[in-house]
Amino acid sequence: MASALLRELKDIQAMLAAPAAGSPRIGAAAASPPLHTAATSEDEEATAPPLPLPPASPSKHARELERQVTALRQELAEANDRCRVLDEALQATRHDASLAVAKLHSSGSTQLAAKAEETRQLADLVFQLRNEADGLRAQLAASAAASHAAEASTAQLQEAAAEWRRQGEEGLEVAAQERARSTALQVEVERLSAELEAVRRERDDQRRRRQAAEAAVARLQADGSGPALVAELRSRCAQERAWRKAVCRYLEGEMQAKAELERVLLNVGTSLRMQQALRLGPVSRVPSASPLVSAAARRIASIRTVLAPASHPEHSKRQPTPARGLAAEVTAAAGAAGAMAPSKQELLRRVAQLVPDLAPDKYKGQAGKIAVVGGCREYTGAPFFASMAALKIGADISHVFCTEGAATVIKGYSPELIVHPYLPDSSQQGGGQQGQEQARQQAVQAIEPWLDRFDAVVIGPGLGRDPLILSTVAEVMRAVRRRSLPMVVDADGLWLVNQDPSLVAGYANAVLTPNKVEFGRLADTLGVAVDSPDALQSICRSLGGPVVVRKGHEDAVGDGHQVVVCDEEGSPRRAGGQGDVLSGCIAAYSAWAQRAAGASREQLHESGGSGDGSPGLPPLVVAAYAGCLTTRRASQRAFAKQRRSMGATDLLVELGGVADELAEQGSS
Questions:
Q1: CA 582/CA 577 separation, integer angstroms
Q2: What is the pLDDT of residue 323?
Q3: What is the pTM of this model?
Q4: Residue list for the binding site for (6S)-NADPHX
Q5: Is the pLDDT of residue 663 over 80?
Q6: Which amino acids does the record list as binding (6S)-NADPHX (predicted)?
Q7: Looking at the chain, which residues constitute the CATH 3.40.1190.20 domain(s)?
Q8: Which of 45, 179, 340, 388 has the greatest number of C-beta atoms within 10 Å?
Q9: pLDDT (average), residues 399-409
Q10: Which residues contribute to the annotated binding site for ATP?
Q11: Is residue 50 scored above 60 in pLDDT?
């Protein structure tokens, strides 16, 4: 039994000396430190290997220490179990030893002496194992202390990392604020640089003008003709003021005569309608108490033979006397009044005459070639709507002349459009004022040859307010005038006209399409009271030729002589781009008006015939009215389908059907 116990104790010692390969180890290497036995010296205990330094990552080090502490605790528990077993074995051995000693004393056998020696060795081994277990406990305590220290160090490192993270976030915020401030400062510097450049250019211009003025003064002083020139200028200014006063007096007289004539015509028309309704006699038989007997009615009593029905027996016996003075004016004005306010059926007939027939023997271009001058980097939709409206209503070809930044976008909207990136943009031009002037001349030279191919031109949709673009378009407008092309001016083109009214003044083939705000600006520029009932005609007369379409709840078309109102019901939805659609429609109808009237471009405004020689509205007025009517009907149809989601693209879909409908209504 003692031999078996000895073998078991040796096996336990071997297990403690060489633990399993899968058990955790303490330290940087995988080997376990030597166990403290009775043979271990105190110097070796003093020189025990130190605990390894924690790794760079606090979280990994803490997890490694926890695993080591757990392994040590398991080993300690196993060692305690083994010690308990050894104690029990020791007690049993001592008991056996005492029995053996008793037997030895009684028998004196050598075998018992050997057993006693073996038992003594076994006891020494047990004490050695106990010392090793105490060493393991000491190492476990040291490991636990190191674990606590590592945990404290890990907490400190985590706090330091959190502090560093917070400082880093604050640094990032400060850096972002600094970048934003730097960007704002850079933008401000660019703006100030642009302003400085503009101030420098203005200063250079002023210097050149001052030098030119000084040179002119020097020449005048050298020639001695300065006082004579000043006197001549003063004389011309006085003549100009006298001429303007005379013109104002003449216009006031004309306005008074017109007002008197309108009152006379009102009385005459009312009298005629009452006579026809009541089948009365001539005007002279109207009771004296009737409100029709006014001063104007009494003044036209001499022309009752003209106004009375021809079938009246009293007048059938008389020979008509020629009207003289005011009577002749009233008669002529009455005929003019009939021409000024044609019936809606007559207007529809005139519109139907403009729409070209669809026939297989026609070739491309006969239905009109339209050009739209406008479109910059910010505004690409407006020229698209205007040019596509001309195509959708029936024109064959539509071109767009725009800046380079808008050309690709507009071309991407539709492959049906021919896009020319000829307009210069000051933001992309260098070389100062001289470079911009050269770019403007090159653009005009590139655009002008194309104008000979077109039947009508639209100026302004998406044009923008860039000075270089506007100056270029002003030259294009002058080139259009030289060719007597119909020219529809809208949007920023009207703003350009406000800056220089001479661009359209006296040009009878121009159509201006201002909305309420643009109409007010135009009236202010021309010195016309915008709230006056005659504001539209006053603007037309001030410009001396162009047709003006005043857009609003009802579109009014005037040319200075007559006004036609389009009261067709439209859409309550006011979507962006509807005005551009109207401009494209008017341009297409203007191109057709020239062909339908059989007139040259110079006769387009003056010709009042309807194609058969009968008097009527000028073709350009009819074209403007037709554009308003078509746009309103298309808007009404689109709104019925789309309601609040209606946009300008929905109008484009309806234009062709409306044009066909107008052609059929006018011919029926």
A1: 9
A2: 36
A3: 0.51
A4: 462, 515-521, 580
A5: yes
A6: 462, 515-521, 580
A7: 348-356+365-667
A8: 388
A9: 93
A10: 551-555, 570-579
A11: no
